[in-house]
Each structure stands twice: as structure tokens, then as C-alpha cells.
Design brief:
alpha/beta, Rossmann fold, binds NADP nicotinamide-adenine-dinucleotide phosphate, eight-stranded mixed β-sheet
Length: 205
């Protein structure tokens, strides 16, 4: 299975490098700017594509690692190309496969959301941690089980979830991570204020 990436950002760099290190053939990258595609290609020893259609033609699996609000429009731009038999994946935590790739089965292809439950913050380092990350997978029923097996064969931890659970799953993840960080910061500010108050009293007249 040859894997191509549309979107050379944090997740594109990270997954691409991880796949290369686990004997998956990565064709290369297409991105909004050719500079990003070239940097990702250099990092993974793959190719930078100036032509998105060529990347699609050269790849069996396409990862759309673009911002969430660009996934459906990017798919719309390629859906009329020869994509029969290909697998399309996006990595959004909140969007289902069918929102990113509407009616993809009618084009003879399959679509999946493959979400890493992890903050990927560093284009060049995060791939080292990917083997410990929990991924969720949902999408076209025809190849769902084989898609899970393929991802697991690279060493990733992948759990299938129902599409209907995606919103709740993403909400739970946000509460357990983003909101915990916000609560911690709030608590820290309160304690810091207490400390400053005590210090002010101690130094008083
Ligand atoms: N980062 C995380 O922690 C994380 C975790 C889980 C899931 N995700 C998901 O992963 C996906 C990618 O996120 P990210 O963090 O990697 O974002 P990112 O670092 O901002 O990278 C997105 C890349 O997409 C490219 N791009 C934007 N519009 C494009 C278009 N129309 N066509 C082609 N390329 C385009 C940009 O390219 P240029 O550089 O060329 O301008 C950018 O490098 C999102 O669906 C996000 O929800 C992210």
C-alpha cells in the first residue's frame, strides 16, 4: 500500500515519518505551499508533488492532513479523478469520515477518519511517541476491518468506534485534556494570588 499525504503540517510530517520507519511505502507530499511539501519530503526521504492529481494517481491510500475545514473541499476537488479502489483518510477528531468524504462509496473508494488521541506539536519529533498513542477509526464498512489490521500491523493502537459516537468521544477528550489544562491554570493563578497576598502582608508596615 503506497501512502500519500495532502497537507504537510504537524500530523502529515509525523504520520509520514512513522510509516516510513515501519516499512510502509510513502509516495510523498502535496501541500498548499511547495515549501512545506519539500520540507516534509526531505524529512521522510520521499517526493514533493507540485501536482495534487499526480500524488493521488501514485498512491493507494491518501491521508488528508489538512485543517478540518479544508477536508471536504479538498475531497470535492479530487473526487472526479480516477479514485476507484483507493482509500481516503482524514485525522479530524470531531468530523466523521462521511462528513469529510461525502458519498465516497459512490465513487468506488473508501473513506475513514483515523484520529490520534494525542497533541502532535512538533513536526520533527512527535513521530517518536506515536507507537504509544491511542487511535480511533471509523468509516466505510467494506474495508473497515482490513484498514484496522493494516494500521495495527504498523504497531499503532487502533480501536474502531461507531460514527455516531464521534462527537461524544471528541467532547470527552476535550474535557479530559484541554479543559483540565485550563482548570490547572486557573488553580495556579488562585494560589499565586494567595502567595502574593501573604508576601505583601509580611512585608507590610
Ligand atoms: N496537531 C494535533 O495535535 C492533531 C491531533 C489530532 C488530530 N489532528 C488533525 O490532523 C489534521 C491536521 O492537523 P495539523 O495539526 O497537522 O495541522 P497543521 O500543522 O496546521 O498542518 C496543516 C497543513 O495543511 C496544509 N494545507 C492547508 N490547506 C490546504 C489545502 N487546501 N491543500 C493542501 N494543503 C493544505 C498547510 O500547508 P502549508 O504549510 O503548505 O501552508 C499545513 O501545513 C486536522 O484534521 C487536525 O484536526 C491534529
Amino acid at each position: 500500500m503506497k501512502v500519500g499525504f495532502i497537507g504537510a503540517g504537524k500530523v502529515g510530517f509525523t504520520l509520514g515519518k512513522y510509516f516510513c520507519e515501519h516499512d510502509i511505502e510513502v509516495t510523498g507530499y502535496y501541500s498548499r505551499s511547495i515549501q512545506s511539501a519539500k520540507k516534509a519530503a526531505a524529512f521522510t526521504a520521499t517526493a514533493a508533488y507540485e501536482n495534487r492529481s499526480q500524488l493521488v494517481a501514485d498512491s493507494d491510500v491518501l491521508f488528508f492532513t489538512v485543517p478540518d475545514d479544508c477536508i471536504a473541499s479538498t475531497f470535492e476537488a479530487v473526487r472526479h479523478e480516477p479514485i476507484q479502489g483507493k482509500i481516503f483518510c482524514h485525522c479530524s477528531g470531531v468530523l466523521t469520515a462521511s462528513v469529510g468524504f461525502p458519498s465516497i462509496e459512490q465513487a468506488g473508494a473508501s473513506g475513514y477518519s483515523v484520529h490520534p488521541l494525542f497533541a502532535i506539536s512538533d513536526r520533527y519529533q512527535s513521530y517518536r511517541e506515536l507507537a504509544d498513542v491511542f487511535f480511533t477509526l471509523e468509516g466505510s464498512s467494506d474495508r473497515l476491518a482490513s484498514q484496522q489490521e493494516w494500521l495495527k500491523s504498523t504497531g499503532l493502537h487502533v480501536q474502531i468506534i461507531p460514527a455516531a459516537a464521534k462527537m461524544r468521544y471528541h467532547c470527552a477528550a476535550a474535557i479530559a485534556s484541554n479543559q483540565v489544562v485550563a482548570l490547572f491554570a486557573e488553580s495556579q493563578q488562585l494560589l499565586l494570588g494567595l502567595w502574593l497576598l501573604r508576601r505583601g502582608r509580611a512585608a507590610g508596615p
